[in-house]
Amino acid sequence: MREDWGMRFGVLGPVEARVGGAVAGVGGPAVRALLAMLLLDAGRVVPVERLIDGLYGAEPPSGAANALQSQVSRLRRGLGDAALVEGRPAGYRIVAGEDDVDALRFERLAKDGRRELAAGRHEVAAELFAEALGLWRGPALADVSAPFAEAQAARLEEERASVVEEYGAARLATGEAEAVVPVLRELVDARPLRERARALLMRALHGCGRQAEALAVFEDGRRILAEELGADPSRELADVHVAILRGDHGGLGDRYGRGDRGGRGDGGGAPRANLPAQLTSFVGRDEELRRVGKMLAEGRLVTLLGPGGAGKTRLAVEAAGRERGDVCFVDLAPVAPDEVPKALLGALGLREGGMLPAQGGRAPDAVERVRTALDGRRVLLVLDNCEHVVASVAGLAHRLLSACPDLRVLATSREALGITGEALRPLPPLELPPEGAPAREVAAYPAVRLFLDRAEAVRPGFAVDEGNVRDVLRICRALDGLPLAIELAAARLRSLPVRDVATRLDDRFRLLSRGDRTAAPRHQTLRAVVEWSWDLLDAAEQTLACRLTVFSGGFTLEAAAGVCRDDDAADAVASLADKSLLQSDGVRYRMLDTVRAFCAERLAEAGETERFERAHAEYFLALAGRADPLLRTAEQLEWLTLLAADHGNLHAALRRSIRPDPALALRLTAALSWYWWLRGRVEGAPLAAALLDAVGADPPDGLEEEYVLCVTNAVSGGVSGEQAVAWLDRAETVLHGIRRRLRYPVAIVMWALAAGPERTDNAVFAQQIGDDAWSRALVKMSDGFVAQFAGDMAGAERACAEAARGFRECGDRWGAANSLDTLAQIADWRGDRERALALLDEALGQMELLGALEDTADLLYQRAYVHLHGGELDEARAAFERGVELARRAGTPDKVAGGYQGLGDVARLGGDTAGARRLYETALTGYASERFIAVAVRGTAVTGLAWVALAEGDVERARELLHESLDTAFDHPVFRHRAFAAAGLAAVALAEGDARRAALLLGTAAAANGGRLPADPAVAHVSSQVKNALKDDVFDAEFGRGAALPHGEALALARADGTTP
């Protein structure tokens, strides 16, 4: 088929069609609207129903389908070629390519520009953005007033505004501030609440030397934000303001200049979304969908309100699915109020802990981690089923919206969140036909359309006609137009005539109307529908439906049979799904919330809730126990996936067991410990803490090991202070009293990393560790860590090589990656960069399979240091930047800080002392806890600042910072920053003219680093200068004296500022 007709189309302005440069006479307003709808989906079939809805709205005229055919004919005549508009069985398609329609070409150019911007090719990006903006001839769809046009125009105009901003950022990056002032000012005047545009305009004015104007732009923005939103300027806008006041050009850098569109994914890449897949068509909410789209285009917090079954979730999913940027869907139905932030972390795909746990202080605040992950990203956050956690959601939404200017939130709830800036959209019932409407017209009304759509699915060929129209209308009216109720009623057509459905619904409603008049009418109606559906179930189906309510977050057929003690559960589950009481994705089943609440009441009335909650807990205890050893085998990934699917059930089982059966809860906590550790899911920590409160000071007999694991989970998750010390003291006593091999060998590594070396007794562990392959590998890895920290690199290498082989044979990627990481550090220490990079590549491959963002960031930082030590600054910078991005996505402030500290090293070694200082200070600002790795980050950043001070000639300041670095973590086992600080003190001594003392201190640096100087070019330069200042024998003697000291004594000498002991 011919695709190139020499025809070009435009919607970025008045709708037009051009042939060879001449404008074709398309036709009147209705035909232009039809052409515009087809062009926005050029090359794809647009369904007739969607065209009618878009052209006529919620109330199309009678004969709308015939009118559409007439308009298609007129459009074909206007275009001069009937083949341009193809008729298909389901709708119509306009034959046009991407470059034939200005809107599609605009979007392609914008995408290409963002890619170039992300790659740092600013000139090319600016040209692409300019070409894209040049396609606009006026407001989008300027001469179209059909119902569909408003939302589409708003979307295109939003995209245009983003491209203007990106064009401004690209031109600023090429030093063309004067050129972008007019276009940015026009955008700010048109959209005064766009803070990024205002920040770019301020930068452009400042770049032209017009500082006063730039400050005036800020003050105007501050006033408008206060008056319109009652809000303060965003952090980005405030930072630009402060930088202008200080005359700090370095502080005026645009984080978007690297291709970040104010948050559209990864440098403008493909949009990402985790929206649940829908198994049925979307019917009857077209007007609400349009309005929600408009509200999201104009505001930042939209809440859909309505009773259960009103269709809030489905409308939210459909609205979010039309977003071009990132979308994150969070189902809060199974979530407790204090677990809302952690649910967001899970939905964002973030782990809640890295290779190493919290150490002696608080873990990163979950809300802060979410904020870090969302900062600077354009994301729509969909918070579904908020009603039972409304206070928690309200506080979280307010905090995130205040901190993340590019974030928008779409919530569904039965009540408003009640915070400033919230736009409410109550969902009305689906529209019903008027009394006496003829059969040929009723199908156009949303309530009837939904009924017919679902009825046709269970009874193919069903249609409304003069014979059944009264019964169809009786059903839809009796159900008040509530979508869930209508779907449940339509499902009954599988086995009942429509008249019987209508009659039985009417009888039941008459009975309920004399019941509880205090409940909301629609709640009565929905309850009536569910109760009526319940009465149509046979006894076995009713029994199973009640028992299934103990599941949280869905279940498999195997789980249903196991928990409900029903070997024939598969047939009954399938029957419940057929009757719309369960939803299925083909593997797992989920009960609708309203149905679940109704059936749970029946289970309670039968006195069986406790019985089946216990059966549920026992089933998932068995599942977790079966999974635990397999998480240390080649089946690791498969079992991680299986446990993640039942995450809600596992936590529900644990939560419900804490008070009635602490012993069962302890066993379940132990069985889940390694799963939590691998996934970083520290939401297990509050459950572990609650369990410890229930258990008391003494664990049940025979569950000592489980008690120790419970303590490690609580402490690793951030419990600190006196309570943590008391639990650790008790657990230490309990652990040392176990004189047998442990059932859970992971207890050894978890205890060592959570409790610290001072509480770790290797002699006790030697009696407790098993002789299985994984345990033997673990012992070798532990030996390697101990040897490395003691400076015995040869011993560390031997042990970790054996550990890596052992973990590979077991199939445990976590252990293998950790062992390989240590081997890479040793290879780097020896100067074997090629081997170090190869080992790190293998470790990265293992961690990426686990989906470990934070641990992958750690490995990327290690890779960056290998490049740095080899003088490959560009490669080091790229690895650090990628690691920072992963850490930011993971929402881990400490890991982000570690990346900035590394970037500071790159800047320092590149001669950019001012840039290095900024980056080190940024790292220290982002330092958020006393975690094991965070202490090392702080020490290294402070040492980096000392080297900057030395480069700038401030010797006294350098000395102060180096002492601060050593004092921060004198006993910290990460030796890199301690040796680096000792070498810095050697540089101080040299600057003060004491070369002999400098040689001695260089020796102490080598002693603290396994016998070699830190592989930093600045250290090598100092060493060379000291050698030049001394005779060879003198240098060798002083250096040897320092290097011969045990590393603890060497550091003590360095901390004493070189005074000879």
TrEMBL record:
What InterPro entries does the database record attribute to this sequence? BTAD, HTH_77, OmpR/PhoB-type_DNA-bd, P-loop_NTPase, Sig_transdc_resp-reg_C-effctor, TPR-like_helical_dom_sf, WH-like_DNA-bd_sf
* Alphabetical keyword list: DNA-binding
Q: Which residues bind DNA?
A: 1-96
UniProt protein name: Tetratricopeptide repeat protein
Q: Which GO terms describe its biological process?
A: phosphorelay signal transduction system; regulation of DNA-templated transcription
Q: Which family does it belong to?
A: Belongs to the AfsR/DnrI/RedD regulatory family.
Q: Where is this region: Disordered?
A: 255-274
Pfam families, alphabetized: BTAD (PF03704), HTH_77 (PF25872), TPR_12 (PF13424), Trans_reg_C (PF00486)
The record lists the organism as Actinomadura chibensis
